[in-house]
Amino acid sequence: MFVTPASFDSFGRQLTRDAAEQLARNWTTLLLNGLVLIVAGVLIFSIDWSVESLSTFIGALFIFEGFWVMLTAGIDNRAVNLLTGFLSIVAGIVIIAWPDPSLIVLGIFLGSWLIVVGTVSVAGAFAARNVVPDWWLLLLLGVSEVILGVLALADPGATLAAIITVGGIWAVAIGAMRIVLAFQLRNLPKQLDEAMSDRSSAGGQTAPTGA
């Protein structure tokens, strides 16, 4: 059986359509994740934390994010998602179980985790650039996480206020960006169908009639 250029193009379109549907199915979980992070960020800023209580709260966020990453399907490497989620859960458990965690311990865990999660988000953004019109939002999200992680690692012995600032900014900013991205993904298959229809119509209009 020969594969013509037309059938190959159709196969490529179907792969893109399948990827769009896979992403769109996750828009509600992404929306919920964003809302939870915003609430968490508000709590981080509004409560008078001790090092131990903040460590427990951030550890719980690690665990929440880990399960979310593992359960959310994407178009990038599924094995990477599972590994990242698992490491996030382990890190959360370690932080919660750590006897009398210091600011240095909390800063190192928070910074390292943000860099890892941010790097995965950046990789996912490039994987989705041919499917998601606003893939740069995911890229910006990942870059923001990496920057915050570097800031946390730059001075792991920083004050409690500095750790609260990094954690709070991350939760609110990333949560808001995920909510925006969720609504972008909701109508992704429809937008892709419209774009492909317009492309086909334009191709039919410009095709030569033949001599």
Descriptive report:
The protein is an all-alpha fold and 211 residues long. The chain has eight helices and no strands. It has helices spanning 5-24, 27-46, 51-71, 78-97, 103-127, 135-154, 160-186, 188-206. Helix 2 packs antiparallel against helix 3 (51-71), helix 2 runs antiparallel to helix 7 and helix 3 packs antiparallel against helix 4. The two termini are 30 Å apart.
How do the helices and strands line up, and which of them pair or pack?
Blueprint: H1 5-24, H2 27-46, H3 51-71, H4 78-97, H5 103-127, H6 135-154, H7 160-186, H8 188-206
Helix pairs in contact: 1-8, 2-3, 2-7, 3-4, 3-5, 4-5, 5-6, 6-7
Task: State the gist of this model.
This protein is mainly α and 211 residues long. It contains eight helices and no strands.
> What does the radius of gyration come to?
21 Å
The largest sheet is: none
Number of helices: 8
Q: On the 0-100 scale, what is the average pLDDT?
A: 78
User: Given the helix and strand composition, which structural class is it?
Assistant: mainly alpha
Give the N-terminus to C-terminus distance in angstroms: 30 Å
Rough shape? Answer: elongated
How many strand segments? 0
Report the portion of residues in β strands.
Answer: under 5%
Low confidence ranges: 1-12
Helical content (DSSP H or I, runs of 4+) = over 70%
Helices and strands, in N-to-C order?
A: HHHHHHHH
